[in-house]
Amino acid sequence: MSFAVPSEAYARFMGRYAEPLAGVFAAFAGVRAGQRVLDVGCGPGALAAHLGSNGAEVSAIDPSPPFVAAVRQRLPDVDVRTGTAEELPYGDAEFDAAMAQLVVHFMTDPVRGIRQMARVTRPGGVVAACVWDGPTGALAPFWDAVHVLDPDAEDEALLSGAHRGHLTELFVDVGLRAVVEESIAVDIEHPAFEEWWEPHTFGVGPAGEYVQRLDADARARLEGVARDRLGSGPFRVVATAWAARGTV
After folding, report:
1. Is 43 inside any structural domain?
2. pLDDT by 10s per residue, the chain, length 248
3. Burial (0-12, 13-18, 19+ Cβ within 10 Å), 144
4. Residue 1, domain member (yes or no)
5. Less packed terminus of the chain by CB within 10 Å, N or C?
6. Nearest Cα to 187, choosing from 32, 54, 24?
């Protein structure tokens, strides 16, 4: 899955959920000030910004050049590189913690990616990841509308980590210890339907790609179904994610 889109498009599409999620996720992971932390699949920097503002020494990596450029501009103190989770360009045991927010389900090889996160984390350090729950995550309202018109559409509920226990299985497979998995959530108010809908047309992720494949009439029908289900606004979306942490 490619995210070769402008960072501003991603921020309007997912940043509105990812930024508040970062604080909840960091608290779950137990990251403390002064620790060296790697943000894997950092996107435009929601988690990295939160970690840095709370005193962590942050490094970050992402395969999307626009996102890497955005982090360099936004967070000049962060060592950010272009690369993938499956081939982390760091030495063994360099970090106190390695974290992946909303990333595991887009890894080409999640087991290899998490194993790499464990490799670069010191013994006794923490590896943590979170992924939107398929039925109740941030994109559930969108896919619920899609399935009214296209019941067989493949949504993100089938991706790695999108259901309870999937992350635990991955963490155990790579040998992490004391694995804990819990649900975490953010509650986001959308002031108007248009504010919620428009970012879905930007081509970001599976949802954006789905919309861009539709012709004008099909897109209008989907927009109409979503509006009927959500209303004109304001409305709230409670977005739930599964989060797991384990010890190296």
Report:
1. yes
2. 456 667 888 888 998 999 999 999 999 999 999 999 999 999 999 999 999 999 999 999 999 999 999 999 999 999 999 999 999 999 999 999 999 999 998 899 999 999 999 999 999 999 999 999 988 999 999 999 999 999 998 876 555 556 889 999 999 999 999 999 999 999 999 999 999 999 999 998 889 999 999 999 999 999 999 999 999 999 999 999 999 999 99
3. middle
4. no
5. N
6. 24
202 phi and psi angles, rounded to 5 deg: -85, -5
Pairing of strands 57-62, 79-82: parallel
CA 98 to CA 71: how far, in whole Å? 18
Which tokens hold the place of 95? Answer: 């970090």
Instruction: Quote the domain boundaries for residue 86.
Output: 7-247
User: 3-class DSSP state for residue 191?
Assistant: coil
Q: Is 150 a domain residue?
A: yes
CA dihedral (120, 75, 51, 240) positive or negative: negative
- Extract the tokens encoding 109: 């090889």
What CATH number is given to the structural domain containing 115?
A: 3.40.50.150
Question: Of 70, 93, 78, nearest to 39 (Cα)?
Answer: 78
